[in-house]
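Researcher: Go.
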Amino acid sequence: MMRNRQIKLPNAPSYRGVTLIVVIFLLIILLLALDRSGMADPVRGQVQSWIAPVLAWMRTGSFSLGQVSSPITDVATLRAEIAALQSENSQLKERLIQFEVTQLENRRLREQVRIEQERPWQLVGTAVSAMTPDSGRQIIMLAVGIEDGIQPGMAVIAQEGGQPPALVGVIESVGPQSAIALLITDFSSSVSAQVYQGEGTIAGLVNGRWQRGSRIWLEEIDREVAFAGGETVVTAGLSARLATDLPRAAIPANVPIGTIESVRIEGRSQIAEIRPYVDPSRVQYAWIIVNAGD
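Model: Structure:
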């Protein structure tokens, strides 16, 4: 994105002026040499007839010594023009980057407002500052903390494509300006969940299975329950009753998690594999539900 700017190139007349000066200088030297040898008289008239028009042209002001230096001046001007254009280009690129950042922030803010209008939740948005899948645990670091009202046990949601905003993790620990969230795909994650079916609900636990080569399962389901596949799984809001080390009292009910992909019988219960609405490993921006509006 650069404005059109004219760059002056060296003019051909400048070089012609240099040539004329050289020719005149050589003729003067020739005259002096002839004059000393006594041979100037026969050719003086002829030489004067050559020089007279040139001298007249120079006296009229059509020629100036400034034309000799104009090629050098034009080169310096050209370099200055190039430097100015490079500086302008750098400034425009910087402005473009800032514009794109502002657009992204505005888009995320509009999305947050839309979610808060559709749900009773109060959200705090944050970028994912780090992911640590190689540590043996599925956790992410968020760029918000105690100073932003974040507490352990709060639900972390994200959105992907045209999917609804869905649960991706739970705040595990909090610092003044940062927090660590345990993803729902981690083996140690367990969240109470439910599936709406007809006029009732089917309760179960959504457990992470990433370390076992899968994503998330819905477990502890009565084996008599029939699933057609594609049913929506949401949080039940009962995680505070689970006997786990991680407090989950702040996870509200009816936060989307995913859809049932397949079901199998295991002992006296069923296990349903869930396709999450949002892949937690790809989350770059998330919201924390700081107030469920209950």
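Model: The two ends are 51 Å apart (CA to CA).
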